[in-house]
Amino acid sequence: MNKTLVIIVAAALLLGAASLYALQTQAASKPPAQAPVPLTVEKISGNLYWLKGGVMANSGFFVGEKSVTVIDVKMTPDGAKAMIAAIARVTPKPIGTIILTHSDADHVNGLTAFPTGLRIISSENTKKEMEEAFKDDKLAAYRAYLPTVTFKAGVEYAPEGLPAYLINVGPAHTSGDTIVYFPKEAAAFVGDLVFLGRDPLVHRQKGGTSFGLVRNLEAILKLSAEVFISGHNDPLTKHDIRGELKMIQEKQAKVKEMIAAGKTLAEIQKTLGVEEPPAGGRRWPSLVEVIYLDITEKRF
Ligand SMILES: [Zn+2]
After folding, report:
1. Which tens digits make up the pLDDT trace of 20-61?
2. 65: Cβ–Cβ under 8 A, 6 or more apart, which residues?
3. Distance 232 CA to ligand 1 centre (A)
4. Are 53 and 37 in contact (CB under 8 A)?
5. How far apart are CA 127 and CA 151, in angstroms?
6. How confident is the model over 186-216, as pLDDT tens digits?
7. How far is the CA of 272 from the centre of ligand 1 (A)?
8. 102 C-alpha to center of ligand 1: Å?
């Protein structure tokens, strides 16, 4: 390319960028209802990566000797396709294994973007929750994507060919959350066991409990890891998780005390400063309500 041509091309690119910028600023005055968050690949260490943004929950992948292992698969097939394309930009190796941290749609519903026949690993209870959800005929296509390998609660499971441990400490956010721990990379994927900046979400209808959440956070803190990838935050540290654990335990102690003193849920929520739900209801029950129900229904 000669010098003049380079200048012309550069000028054209600049003009293009300027008009694109104008379009974007115009669009900004009328934002779309749901602006898509761009999907980005971030390296954790060695061959381990996490996928930030895209369609809902964070996910991750590990490039193994022969194939790639994916951890959680976004909320929609299109979201998962974007994820598969992003992985292909890092490695030409095929995806061979999918690990699901739990059964929530924003971690699982991208499954149909993958070929069938892959190894899919989850805890036994996550598989049960998925079987239950996929009884819905609208989700019939997902029945071909049920986990093919499961492991029991309380077992540290090391999948063949993957330098990771899968740990399920029992019910917490759901009835069967899995911690995916990579010792060499000093990192762990913790699904939705940690939510920072808002009340943790406990699906009591799936068998989750706040006391189980405490046990899971304690187990996470025992790992020799420095980086923790959760579904909806940027990478976390042990300091973050310790703070979250302390906050939950303090609330549990206060609610327990007030129940013993004969207080009602409404009185306890008021004393602990739980705000009234906005019009249309709260997105999910307050942690105080979850703890109150766990204690009164003896779900420890
Ligand atoms: Zn979840």
Report:
1. 333 333 333 334 445 567 899 999 999 999 999 888 899 999
2. 161
3. 9
4. yes
5. 10
6. 999 999 999 998 899 999 999 999 999 999 9
7. 25
8. 7
What are the CA-CA distances from residue 128 to residues 114, 124, 159, 190 (Å)? 21, 6, 20, 20
Structure tokens at 231: 């579904």
The rounded Å distance from CA 201 to ligand 1 centre is 8
Q: What interhelical angle do 210-222 and 287-296 show, nearest 10?
A: 110
Q: How far is the CA of 107 from the centre of ligand 1 (A)?
A: 7
Cβ pair 187, 71 in contact under 8 A: no
Cα separation, 165 vs 173, whole angstroms = 19
Report if pTM > 0.70: yes
CA of 275 to the centre of ligand 1 (A): 23
Within the chain, what is the greatest distance between any pair of CA atoms?
85
Within 10 angstroms of residue 44's Cβ, the number of other Cβ atoms is 19
CA of 95 to the centre of ligand 1 (A): 23
The rounded Å distance from CA 19 to ligand 1 centre is 40
Spatial separation of the C-alpha atoms in residues 237 and 249, rounded to whole Å = 19
DSSP string, the chain: --HHHHHHHHHHHHHHHHHHHHHHHHHHHS--TTPPPPPEEEEEETTEEEEESSSSS-EEEEE-SS-EEEE---SSHHHHHHHHHHHHTT--SPEEEEE-S---HHHHTTGGGSPTT-EEEEEHHHHHHHHHHTTSGGGGGGGGGS-SEEE-TT-EE--TT-S-EEE--SSSSSSS--EEEETTTTEEEEETS---SSPPP--GGGT--HHHHHHHHHHHHHSS-SEEEESSSS-B-HHHHHHHHHHHHHHHHHHHHHHHTT--HHHHHHHTTPPPPPTT--SS--HHHHHHHHHHTT--
Q: What mean pLDDT is reported for the chain?
A: 88
